[in-house]
């Protein structure tokens, strides 16, 4: 890997393009090998994530934000166009609107992959815009895989090197850059074109983190789709010869100087050199449970704890000792009263580790719908237990969260349960069971089982088999066969749901 030093430069420096981070990202992306030369494990993981995305998208088809995004996309028909989850096979829309609809479907349940380092990310959000553009431009499955591996490489590098959260900037700014790079790799665009697309994408998708704070709304699902749509549009403009603000990262009025650490900002972003294997996707991990990633290990820990605690009515209090991120983002350290509100939105509850721990302790399981049902959140005994749970930051858990060795990185915590009689019960879990270093790491069988579970009642068993067979052969697919990556569903039932929504402008 090559360490690139990134800092703010005054305009008088006239920073040469090859020294700008956006250019270096474009070089790394467009230098991604053909699929036959890519690391086989990375290619296999990319297929897993295509399966994972389809699983969570299928389960979310009749959820309001997904239906709204789909309704907004459908008037924008195009030829060849791209498919939209939940619509008839012949329906095609323009790729930026397919990226919008499908990106929202993938993100809605907060149930696909994650990478946590200096910042946060859901790199699977790169896949919907890449798949949409691949369909519209006649690319093959091998081209798509090349783009996915490149997008993950760039996304992971940015998340490791530049922390947005410290300045309350939403993490989709890194997503848009990665998507633009993935599209450049897939389409084999010149470095100059990708450089301009990255600049446009980053400039237009930098937003505050309020979308994940306080009263969290459905925009949390739309935000990554917006970034994907913006990246597609940026690539389109750059291909037509239009430029971007530059240097978008290093400029004296740019991203680093005013959004992050200021004029003295300095960062290190590590990118692969020429011919070096692109394996960053293997450092990322998916979710077994539909909740914020830092809650994954907590749910698994709760299933162990409930065997030791006895009746939960005898609990005096529970303190989760955990990392800075977990405490301040989804714990009591956030200062968000909404995280303890039984009337809170689903989006808020899946970012409340006290709620998640309470329900997991009571139920011994987690479900993407039932665990968030309003009647579940308002159950009196649940509310009573929920409000006895707090989090504290433990420096050791923070250190482990940021351990440079992925094998030692930890995203869990230590729970201390005190009963009314003074008995103290403790247990801890470093990573979720499904994590690569966990008790039951997800492999192809795990992704397949997750898809079948979420597709049950939505996709027939025969259609499930057809989708899984298509995904497994992704590297050999021609463009027309990419349509098989959209599982067949009862589109009439989906349309009937859509008809009940309020109308917008179109």
UniProtKB/TrEMBL annotation:
Residues in MmgE/PrpD C-terminal domain copies: 289-474
InterPro entries registered for this protein in UniProt: MmgE/PrpD_sf, MmgE/PrpD_sf_1, MmgE/PrpD_sf_2, MmgE_PrpD, MmgE_PrpD_C, MmgE_PrpD_N
Residue ranges of domain MmgE/PrpD N-terminal in the record: 34-266
One Pfam entry name: MmgE_PrpD_C
Gene3D superfamilies in alphabetical order: 2-methylcitrate dehydratase PrpD
Domain of life, per lineage: Bacteria
SUPFAM superfamilies for the chain: 2-methylcitrate dehydratase PrpD
Family: Belongs to the PrpD family.
Protein name per Swiss-Prot or TrEMBL: MmgE/PrpD family protein
